[in-house]
Amino acid sequence: MTNDPRKPKWAQRAAGADEASGAAPPYRKRRRWLAPLLILVAVAAVAAYLVLGREDALTGADPETAAPAEPAEAREVVMQVLSTELHEVEAGELRETTRITGSLDPANKLEIPAEVAGRVDEVTLQPGDPVEQGQVLVRIDIETLTNQLEQQRASAEATRAQLELAQSEYERTQSLVNRGVASVSTLDSQAAQVRQLEANLAVQERQVANAEQSLEKATITAPFAGTVSERAVDPGTYVSPGTPLMTIVDLSSLTLEGVVPVIYAPRIRVGQTGEVSVDGLGDQVFTGTVDRVSPVAKAGTRMLPIYATVENSNSTLRGGMFASGVLILDAAEDAIGIPVAALREDDEGQYVLKVEGDQVVRQPVEVARTWDGGQVYQVTSGLAAGDVIVASALERLDPGTTITVIGN
After folding, report:
1. Is the dihedral of CA 366, 368, 373, 374 positive or negative?
2. Which helix or strand (DSSP H or E) is residue 355 part of?
3. Rounded to whole angstroms, how far apart are CA atoms 112 and 105?
4. Which residue of 123, 200, 322, 331 has the lowest C-beta tally within 10 Å?
5. DSSP string, 6-68
6. DSSP state of 296
7. Is 123 left (phi over 0), alpha (psi -120 to 50) or beta?
């Protein structure tokens, strides 16, 4: 390098020394560290911006306008409660029930048999026809039975005439014997004849009575009002005593032959009522009353048969329908019940969470007993009709908590 006459000598010597050693000038060494430093500063600035922008996106706040966050202890806890998790207290009937299932059969059902032998002359009704009490159903060989009755009556009348004659002769002979004109043997013979005729007349009078009964039984009438459910014979059929003729049923009331678990036997009494629903009739509910209780459970089932009468004044029900329902074992009128999950307990005793405004408060209660198979508690004090309580076991909901109800 040519010396610059404008530089001082010491500068020229330093430059010459640098050129001789091949080292870079000092100012170039400082510029080599400046570029990495600027890159690090830029990277840090970008990272800070991204972090701050992410927090603002999560909180939804504008970094320039967002207010400083409140301290954690200053925030008010508000819990959301579904309307289905609340229960409005009301007074009503509380029940203890058990399920009952079974089939319905007509309370009055009669299969009418023939009581006399003969040919069927007339059948007046078909299955499904209504029938009134005393209405004629079947007639059996009326003409033949009438002729038999007339013959029996004629025979009895002839025997009665013979008896009257024999009695008159006996009285005359007795008068002659008393005067010594007739023998005693003749009197004894006539007395025996009288007794024989009296016996014959008694038999014939019984035959007349039987013939009258047969003629009466040849006309079959309905013993009660109802409906024909089955017809077993047609005109011209020959029947003998005991042959089924027709079946009639009374559907004004039916008998539910159901079963209940035998463990409820001590609590079942005649006169208890139940609510019965029947397959195919939707939500219709019928009332049944227990009439009879079997003294013995069915073998191998531990189920106790009971018999309840179900009223059917509108003839909606039919025999053979399957019914199910509940038998009311015990009941309490005008009582307050709460769901089991609503009751809580702490060191101070039993309580519920009662809604007052937008908060829940601790409300002490007294419980008498459970109903409906342990699903309902009967509360005797602490609550009144119209109070609203929390009915679900919400573990994180404590007395004094502010709530908001959703799903109204």
Report:
1. positive
2. strand 349-356
3. 17
4. 322
5. TS-HHHHHHHHHHHHHTPPPHHHHHHHHHHHHHHHHHHHHHHHHHHHHHHHHHHT--TTTPPP
6. S
7. beta
- Strand (E) or helix (H) holding 278: strand 273-278
The one-letter amino acid at 331? A
| Beta carbons within 8 Å of 29's beta carbon, 6+ residues apart | none
- Better-predicted residue by pLDDT, 152 or 51: 152
| pTM passes above 0.70 | no
Contacts of residue 304, defined as CB under 8 A and 6 or more positions apart, other chains included, come to 259, 260, 261, 262, 264, 265, 268, 293, 294, 297, 298
CA distance 325 to 289: 12
| 53: Cα separation from own chain's centroid | 64
Asked if residue 231 has pLDDT above 60, the reply is: yes
Give per-residue burial for 284-314: e unless 16+ CB within 10 Å, then b: eebebebeebeeebeeeeebbbbbbbbebee
Tokens of 227: 């409906």
- Those residues with Cβ within 8 angstroms of residue 368's Cβ, 6 or more apart along the chain or in another chain: 378, 379, 380
The confidence score (pLDDT) of residue 380 equals 92
Closest CA to 344 of 394, 305, 275, 309: 394
CA angle 17, 18, 21 (to 5 degrees): 85
Q: Provide the 8-state DSSP code for 251.
A: E
- Helix (H/G/I), strand (E/B), else coil: 102: strand
Q: What does the pLDDT look like over 58-89, one tens digit per residue? A: 344 454 554 555 454 445 678 888 988 999 99
Secondary structure class of 180 (helix, strand, coil): coil
Under a CB-based contact definition with an 8 Å cutoff, are residues 349 and 382 in contact?
A: no
Asked if 116 and 218 count as a contact pair (C-beta separation under 8 A), the reply is yes
Residue in the structure block whose two tokens are 């010594």:
180
Closest CA to 153 of 110, 212, 235: 212
- Contacts with 79 (C-beta within 8 Å, 6 or more apart), sequence order: 394, 396, 397, 401, 402, 403, 404
Q: Look up residue 183 and give its two tokens.
A: 């023998």
Distance CA 162, CA 164 (A): 5
With vertex at residue 53, the alpha carbon angle to CA 50 and CA 58, rounded to the nearest 5 degrees, is 125
